[in-house]
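Reply to dn_fold:

You asked what the input looked like. This is it:
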Amino acid sequence: MVTTALLALIYLSFISLGLPDSLLGSAWPSMCADLSAPVWGAGLVQMLVSFCTIVSSLNTAKLIRRFGTGRLTAFSVALTAVALLGFSFVRAYALLLVLAVPLGLGAGAVDAALNNYVALHCEARHMNWLHCFWGVGTVIGPMILSACLTLGFAWPAGYRAVGLLQCVVSVALFATLPLWRRDGAKQEEQTNDLNPLQVLALPGAKAGMLTFLCYCASESTLGLWGATYMHLVRGASEAQAASYGALFYAGITIGRAVAGFASMRFLPKQMVRGGLGLLAVGCVMMLLPGSALLSAAGLVVCGLGCAPVYPGIIKDTPENYGAANSQAAVGTQMAFAYVGSTFLPSIFGTMAGTWGYGLLPAFALGLTAMMVVLFNVQKRIVERRA
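and this is what came back:
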């Protein structure tokens, strides 16, 4: 078990990890005009961030063997801080693309390193609560930006404030490096440096990675297109649709807080199966004919169902693949996660342009059915081998 001080620092790191994730979307209307960038330009920045996140996730095991979790996390947070401060000074769209590289590299390393560290050293409840704190970070980022704009500052002030907060977290991480060494050195020395193909060769890994891809694709697709579905299909006003879309993320955040308590009684695999069941119920509620409120309630239930799936899968990683392989496995999981969250929402958008946005609940339900099958295949292979 980790020390209380280090655990508090990890919670703070998860908040800082969420801070920039929702900032670009919130700031883009102002950034687009100031930088004379195309409206679709935010998508290119985000895709570049995601690509660099995948690259760093796949190399995290190697970096941890060389530098350790503490030093890698501190350096990576510092890298994101530099990138965010750089965003606040740019005056040309092309520079955003340049700064997207360190932002993605830093975020991917922090995500993979901390998720594996918590999976190895902490109880399941902390995994759920830490991801709840990530959700808190995604809420705080836009709030900081909104406060800056309300006070009469431009969007760079919001990025500068978040970048300075990241600097504070990075300094705290560097100052507490001895805590990481004491708690995690032995496990880091025993970490196997597996490449993605070697990870996929582990028993049950192919089904497990595809489960994670489908989950992140489902969450991102519902989050991106949920409000559009409520407006175009269910007839909600634009203002109502926006609030309904926010409820999906509220469901995830609240659900992870509750899941932390539930995980004291249930195993991670039980939490995942329960979450997938709730997600399926939410999708069916959105499919049923009725008022916009019924579909909105379904969207909230989808968020509650999503809540325990991601933390449960990560927490189960050392058991599924072995503690020595878990860092490489988590890095590969992060890569699959970003592939799903980057490309599947766009694929759905293309499909919806042809067949309509009413396809959303069925699309999410199909992904959920695939997750149920893949997850059970993985667990059957792992448990039979054990």
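The mean pLDDT is 88.
Hope that clears it up.
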